């Protein structure tokens, strides 16, 4: 059989406020399916993020400093446009619980309407990270709790 030289690229969008080991797990699983993952850090002012865009971008980039197949970019416009500009064939997202499904289903359906060629691909959270969310990290760290086993090492000093 002939080898297909096409690079499989996925965009992994999120707010990453901050990036957690749950997010890292999604990327690690994604790297088994794709040659390259573009982690797209959303400006998302509507969510009133704790960390500004630049800091969130730095945290993602530092977390994957040793992984040449992962790139961190910022975005504010339409995800489908960003995917096109990076030559991505897929959107990568993670699922923790049934509660994630409704929103993810809506977003995937909307994105499919905007670009029928772009496929949404979901990976399941690792069992010990199903409860990990950026919101809990912010709350626990804000109260002085230990989150060192829940976020990548470079993120810790941003939380202290
Ligand atoms: P958003 O603000 O768009 O929900 P997030 O940064 O919170 O962005 O999450 C981005 C994606 O990562 C979402 O698909 C979310 O379900 C997934 N995700 C977040 N935390 C985890 C986790 N602990 N395990 C698996 N997937 C996760």
Structural commentary:
- The chain is of the alpha/beta class.
- It is 40% helix and 19% strand.
- It has six helices and five strands, in the order E-H-E-H-E-H-E-H-E-H-H.
- Strands 3-2-1-4-5 form a five-stranded parallel sheet, with helices on both faces.
- The longest helix has 17 residues.
- The chain starts with 8 loop residues before the first strand and ends with a helix.
- Adenosine-5'-diphosphate (ADP) binds next to helix 1 and strand 4.
Count of separate DSSP helical elements:
6
CATH class: Alpha Beta
Say how many strands there are: 5
Mean pLDDT: 94
Q: What is the architecture at the second tier of CATH?
A: 3-Layer(aba) Sandwich
Rounded to an integer in angstroms, the radius of gyration calculated over CA atoms is 16 Å
CATH topology: Rossmann fold
Q: Can you write the helix and strand succession as a string? A: EHEHEHEHEHH
What profile does the largest beta sheet have? 5 strands, parallel
Strand content: 15-25%
- The backbone outline, from C-alpha atoms, is globular
Strand order of the largest sheet: 3-2-1-4-5
**Considering the protein shown, what is the CATH homologous superfamily?**
HUPs
Helix content: 40-55%
Distance from N terminus to C terminus (CA atoms, Å) equals: 54 Å
Bound small molecules, by name, code or SMILES, are: adenosine-5'-diphosphate
Low-confidence stretches: none
